[in-house]
Amino acid sequence: MTRLLIDCDPGHDDAVALLFAARHLDLVGITTVHGNSSLENTTRNALALAELAGLDVPIARGCVGPLVGNATYAPQIHGKSGLDGATLPVPRRQTVEQHAVDFIISQAERHRGELVVAVIGPQTNLALALRREPRLAGWLREITVMGGSTTTGNVTPAAEFNIYCDPEAAAAVFTSGVPIRMVGLNVTRRTGFSSADVQRLRASGRRVATVLADLLDFYLARQRDAFGLDLAPMHDVCAVIPYAFPELIRYGETAVQIEVSGALTRGMTVCDLRALRPDTRLPARLAGAPNARVALEVDSRPLIDRVIETILTYP
Ligand code: BDR
Ligand code: CA
Question: pLDDT tens across 166-217, in order?
Fold first, then answer.
């Protein structure tokens, strides 16, 4: 079973990723970061979700803002609290004393060569951990990222939210030398819950599934308003799925660079798809060295079914 640490900013789709990972993988910890809402909110949401689902996993608070500039939040998608739409239990659990940056380092040292870090929010915590402990890159098995896109963004035409929120951090992660698996909007925006899927959760009558249904009704309505989507995209769980159901997402290996300075393209993941297309394939000497496996194809329906079945295993 893969040992996984999730770095997140819950967040509706983060919530689903956490519940999925706790059931299928050896989840050694959760770290929180600014992103969909303030650090205070994302941390409270992580604790409340752990309370709801009875997850006995250490949770560490991380960074309040990006390496450069101010934090950007997404209340138009996730509400003011970062997780609007349901009443979550008041957490009795508390965060561990260690800061998320130190927690990531200590877990990686403890599980050398085994730990996968799933980064499903802005990448500030991991970037700082890599800077603080130069041996960290050699200790990690892999970094799996929900972020970026091989096509268009969601915050700007070029940039996806998680990368846009801290491009300098993403640049540090993508140049760290750790094997990277990236799933971006090109795959995740069409992999989501329909209202019938949400109804399936509600009809179960189970507590966790019912709370999730309330949350996802809210999130689905916001997706309709913001993007005209009739689907609640499960961006974040797509970063975790490969460790439980590897056949559901297919990747191509290529060079990915993070744009940090473009006036129109800051936060873009520049994926060298020329290396993957027969009509544009470059001579090896001209192509950049591959640093990531990038998600290109997904079996969305079976993926969402596996996620629903997993949520229905909670009481
Ligand atoms: C990403 O941004 C956040 O709003 C979601 O939780 C996901 O991680 C999608 O762009
Ligand atoms: Ca997220």
Answer: 999 999 999 999 999 999 999 999 999 999 999 999 999 999 999 999 999 9
State how beta strands 115-119 and 192-193 pair: unpaired
- Count of the separate structural domains present in the chain: 1
Full residue range of the structural domain in which residue 170 is found: 3-311
CB 42 less than 6 A from any atom of ligand 1: no
Is-above-0.70 flag for pTM?
A: yes
DSSP-assigned letter for residue 181: E
Shortest CA distance to 19 belongs to which of 199, 236, 214, 223? 236
- Going by C-alpha positions, the residue among 234, 205, 203, 199 that lies closest to residue 217 is 199
For 58-83, how does the pLDDT look when each residue is reduced to its tens digit (9 = 90+)?
Answer: 999 999 999 999 999 999 999 999 99
What CATH number is associated with residue 111?
3.90.245.10
Would you say how long the chain is, in residues?
A: 315
235 in catalytic set: yes
CB of 11 closer than 8 Å to CB of 236: yes
Q: Which of 6, 7, 12, 13 most suits a substitution to test ligand 1, by most atoms within 8 Å of the C-beta?
A: 13
